[in-house]
Each structure stands twice: as structure tokens, then as C-alpha cells.
Amino acid sequence: MSDSQSSSSSSSSYDSASMGLPPLNVVESHRGTDGSRTFSQALTPMGSRHWRDVVWMLIFLAHLIVIGLALVVFGLNRFRKKDRLNIDRYTVGHLENMDGLTEDFWPLYAVAGGVGIFLGWTWLLWFGSHANQVMKFSVHLLATYLAVISVLCFWGKQLLWGFAFGIAAAFQFLYVISVIDRLPFTMLVLQTAVKMVWDLPEVIRAACIFMLVMLFWLALWSFGVAGIVALSIGDGRHWWLLVVLSVSLFWTGAVLCNVVHVIVSGMVFLVLTHGGREVSSMPPKPLINSLRYAVTTSFGSICYGSLFTAAIRTLRWEIRGLRSKIGNNECLLCCVDFLFHLVEFLVRCFNKFAYVQIAVYGKSFNHSAKDAWELFQSTGVEALVAYDCSGAVLWMGTLLGGLIAGTCAGVWTRIKCPNRVVMVGSTAMLMGMILVGLVTVVVESAVTSIYLCYAQDPLLIYRWDAAFFDQMSEKLHQRLQHRSAGTREVLSHRIDDQIQETVGV
Question: Compositionally biased, Low complexity: which spans (predicted)?
Fold first, then answer.
């Protein structure tokens, strides 16, 4: 190795250590005759794997056992026979809907499951060939669809749900207006991520496997929920039970989505760092290794992070959109800024980029989230991440798919059992969102891996797609200049205010 290569290796090792990253095999590189850089070895993580966040894994598994038993009990109690397990003796004084059976409502959830699967894979196939149309469809149709459902809820005298969907439509509209200028760059990132995903068919197969796993759990979950909907208790108790089971399903769905996230992130990171999936330096059976780590040593970290990341990200998007539309109302701006900084603090602790660090290095969730965010801030890539809306666009597609699945189940419920439309429709919507999310998370994983690789070593993106690298670098330069100008303007205003106060005194 030449002296220049030795110094390059030392520099790379120092950078990794200073960023809090594990030791890496250093990229040996040299300049070609045309000035381009070629690589002889890729960055690969070193070190053994340890079990992380084991307590959260045990909590999640215990929760699955308890919820699973409850679902079996509630489902069997009304399956083909009323009060098979004599549960009605605990509901004396709240007897309603005594004629309902589990099989009356279970097929309605099967509709939601089928629609969710169809929409998820249709979305991915359509996105691969017509990304621009799909993005516009997801972004613009969601607000309209929410508004239509709000009107239908008011028409059906469901005032609470009408207000809820109406407010959601308003927030969606405000958010789209506030980020309309970011959509071209978002489109570029998503198209690139989809291209990478289609070049890795094994990750698509992994998503299919976990969708089958999720379908098995949804079959049991909907069996139990159908039994609860048919149960002879008051509506208030129905809703309490459904809320508990919906929270459980949300956590379970988030865990499975993030297991796929970790698997895909590990694969994409390896492909980018090694320069291709067919190169000799690629480790054997990378997908199997990623799967093994995701469901064993890193599973606790996934369970822990899945509780919080989705909710915090959604809150962050909404506050960003609201913050940009406030104007000069100082009091309201102060309150929103407080919430904004609080959410930004939470993002440091719970962000989606943690799953890439978990996939590659096997760290705990909090450690991974902190290191990823510090890496972005130290390199300035955080400005690019904050500008990109790909996560929000994918979430819009997921939410739209869930709403359509819930609507289909709700329409059939309206025909068969009009007084249970909201119960079945809302829970079916959650099922549809999870099934569509298992597909969209594949693209999101590619996006997060691209950003982390770009922050860690931009040349990894350059050798994979030079044109995309140039566009990312140009946009990053623009965002950093924009932030610098904003900082100078704030400092200038503060100095002017201090000068005026001094002159006044």
C-alpha cells in the first residue's frame, strides 16, 4: 500500500472512531487515469453480536402470549354458538346484541386483509414503473379521501369520528402545502430507492414471508375481535377492549415492519459498501445473516423502538407543517417552537435510522439512534434528511391503503349490521395499514440506508450511482447555504436589537 493509501486508511479509521462507530475494514482506493476513484475493498463492520434490549423482547413475547390467549377465548365464545364459554355471566345488566356470532363479523375482516394485500403489492409494482403518478396520487388523494369520510361520518351521525377525520384532512392539506417545494427531491430519492429494491429480489421475498406471518396473526386477531364485536356487552366496553387489542396490533405490526426494515437495511448497506451484490468481497448468505440477527440478538431493540418511532415521526411531520404556516403570531409560534424542540429531542432518541445501525452493527436501540443522529449532524446530512419528505409520502400511501381497506369492510358491514360499521371499519383500517406498511417499509429501508451510507462515506453513493450522488450533493450544498443564511439573518436581527436597546438607554 502506498503512503497516500496508508494516510487515507488512517484518516478513515479515525473518522469512524470519532463518530462512535465500530472499527471498519477501510476502503483502499486510488485515482484512475481519468481522475475517477476506484475501490478494491468495501467498508464492512467488524465485531461480535450481543443480545440487546432483552427485557423488551421478553415483554413483547409475553404480551403476544397474553393477547393471543385472550383472542382465542373471545373468538371461541361466540363461534357457532352463543356464549360457548359462559362469558355472558360477567356482563349481567349490559346485555346487547345477543344474536351476534363470531362468524358474522370474521369474513368482514377477511375483506380488509385481502384488500390490504392487493393494495400493498399493487402500490409497489405501480411505484416501480410510475413513481411520479403514485406519489401525486398518494399525496393529493389522501386529504380528499379523509374529507369524504368525514362527511360520511357526519351523515351517519358519528360526530366524533366526523370531527376526527375532518381535522386529519385539514392537517394533511396544510402539510402538503408546506412541503410542496420539496416533492421533486423526494421523488428523486424514492425513485432511486425503488430501483435499488428491484435490484434485490431477495428482500422482496423476505417481505412476502413476513406478510404471511402477519396474515397468520391477523387471522387470529380478527377472530378474537369478531368475537368481541358480537359479545353481549355495552358499546363502551366494546370500545375499551378494541382499543387495547388495536394498540397490541399496532405494536405487533410495527415490530414485524421493523424486522423487515432491519433485514432490508442490512442488505442495502452491504451492497453499497461492497460495490455490488456479485462482488467477491460480499459475505456469504447476507440475507440469511440479516434475518438471523433481526430475529435473535437485535429483536429486543426492534421491539423497543417500535413502540415509539412511528408516533414521534408522525407528530414531527405535523408540527413541521403547522410551524411553517403560523406566520407572525409570536405567542403561538413560541408554543409551537417549544413542541418542535421537544419532538426534535425525542427524534434523537427514537429515529428510523437507528434500524440501519442495528442491522449493521448490532447496537442497542438508543445507542443506534444517538449515533445515527450525531453522524448526520456532524456531516451536515441532517439538513438533507430534514428536507426530504419520502417517509411522509410513504406513510401517506400506507394510511390511504388502510382507509380504503377499512371503507370496503365498512360498506359490507353497513349492509349486514348497520350498528357496527364504525367498530368494524376502524379496526379493519388498522389491518389494512399494517399490510400495506409491510410493503412500503421495503422502500423506506432503502432510503434510510442510502442516507446513512452518504453520511458515512459519500463515495459509496458515488460509485453506485454518480448522477444521483451529484444531485444529492448539490441539494445538500443548497440546504447548508440556506441554513447558513437563516442563521446570519437571526444573528443580524439580534445584534440590531441590542444596538437599539443600547442607544435607547
Answer: 1-18
Are 57 and 110 in a shared domain?
yes
Q: Are 424 and 225 in contact, with CB atoms under 8 Å apart?
A: no
Q: Is 312 exposed, middle or buried (0-12, 13-18, 19+ CB in 10 A)?
A: middle
Q: Is 357 exposed, middle or buried (0-12, 13-18, 19+ CB in 10 A)?
A: buried
Q: Is residue 320 part of a domain?
A: no
Q: Which residue has the cell 359479545?
A: 231
Distance (Å, rounded) from C-alpha 499 to C-alpha 502? 5
**Pair (176, 239) in one structural domain:** yes
What sign for the dihedral angle of Cα 215, 217, 220, 223? negative
13 phi, psi to nearest 5 deg? -65, -40
For every residue of 152-219, DSSP letters joined together read HHHHTT-HHHHHHHHHHHHHHHHHHHHTGGGHHHHHHHHHHHHHHHHT-HHHHHHHHHHHHHHHHHHH
Q: Are 117 and 25 contained in the same domain?
A: no
Q: What are phi and psi of 45, to 5 degrees?
A: -70, 145
Angle of the 102-129 helix axis to the 390-416 helix axis, nearest 10:
150
Distance between CA atoms of residues 253 and 237, nearest Å: 24
Dihedrals φ, ψ of 177, to 5°? Answer: -60, -40
Q: Which helix (H) or strand (E) holds 39?
A: strand 37-39
Model confidence at 104, in pLDDT bands (50, 70, 90)?
confident
88 and 139 co-located in one domain: yes
Look at residue 316 and tell me if it is in a domain.
no
Asked if residue 450 lies in contact with residue 193, where contact means CB atoms within 8 angstroms, the answer is yes
Is the model more confident about 99 or about 31? 99
Task: Annotate 443-454 with b (16+ C-beta within 10 A) or e (fewer).
Answer: bbbbbbbbbbbb
Same domain? 81 vs 18: no
Residues 7 and 103 in one domain: no
What's the mean pLDDT in 451-463?
91
Q: Are residues 151 and 247 in the same domain?
A: yes
Over residues 466-472, mean pLDDT: 93
Q: Is 128 exposed, middle or buried (0-12, 13-18, 19+ CB in 10 A)?
A: middle
Beta bridge partners of 45: 24
Residue that the C-alpha cell 365464545 belongs to? 77
Residue 470 inside a domain? The answer is: no
Is residue 193 located within the same domain as residue 258? yes
Residue 32's domain spans which residues? 1-41
Domain total in the chain? 2
Alpha carbons 129 and 122: distance in angstroms, whole number:
11
Furthest CA-CA distance within the chain: 87
Contact 173, 144 (CB under 8 A): no
Identify the bridge partners of residue 39 per DSSP, sorted by sequence position: 29
Which pTM does this prediction carry?
0.81
